[in-house]
UniProtKB/TrEMBL annotation:
It holds the Pfam family VanY. Residues 64-76 have a biased composition (Basic and acidic residues). InterPro entries: DD-CPase-like (IPR052179), VanY-like_core_dom (IPR003709), Zn_M74/Hedgehog-like (IPR009045). This is Peptidase M15. Residues 42-56 have a biased composition (Low complexity). It comes from the Bacteria. GO terms for biological process: proteolysis. Signal peptide: none annotated. Residues 38-86 are annotated as: Disordered.
Amino acid sequence: MNHTQPPARTPAHRVHRCLVVGLTTAIAAITAALGCQARNTPSDSSSPSSPSSFSPAAPPSKAPHSERRGASDKADGAVPEDTTVFDDDIPAVANLDRDVLTALRRAARNARGHGITLYVNSGWRSAEYQRLLLRGAVATYGSEAEAARWVATAETSPHVSGEAVDIGRSDATAWLSEHGAAYGLCQIYRNEPWHYELRPEAIDHGCPRMYADPTRDPRMRR
């Protein structure tokens, strides 16, 4: 598009604020979409599914909470409010890969000494739950291609295999970003600061370079 005059520069902090507001709006839209599906899906009570990775767009310091739909859905991976990495009675935590959970709990014990609690917004999910999340993301973003930047398929999601966790609350994600490598816990995607997976080699060599988003991850192309 041509302009007769050069546009005025927009200060960087205003651009950042606009981006955060836009992403926050996207979260609200996904929450509404998933809530509507949860109420209207006939099989919801027996095989719920609903975010991470869930992983829809969210402010950079804040993991989404839209998957928290009710106690009846916990068996498929829904996470009640204030769930921590020590809550063995929550399937999303208890069904995590043993090595992932061990590393998380080691990190959480040390974080606690600094006044930080590692809350879990999402962990293990059933395949059906993951499919519902993906359908909600497609409805929100308008295409499978855009949804794939935030939500993986049931066949490729590391949440379904219990190998990924979404950490809640900005103080926890900030602490883990700084100290997670010492426990082999690494942020994998730049657009998902809440999403962590186990990379044991990070203890000695640091975390690998992050992918811009899941569409850049070769594992998502199976």
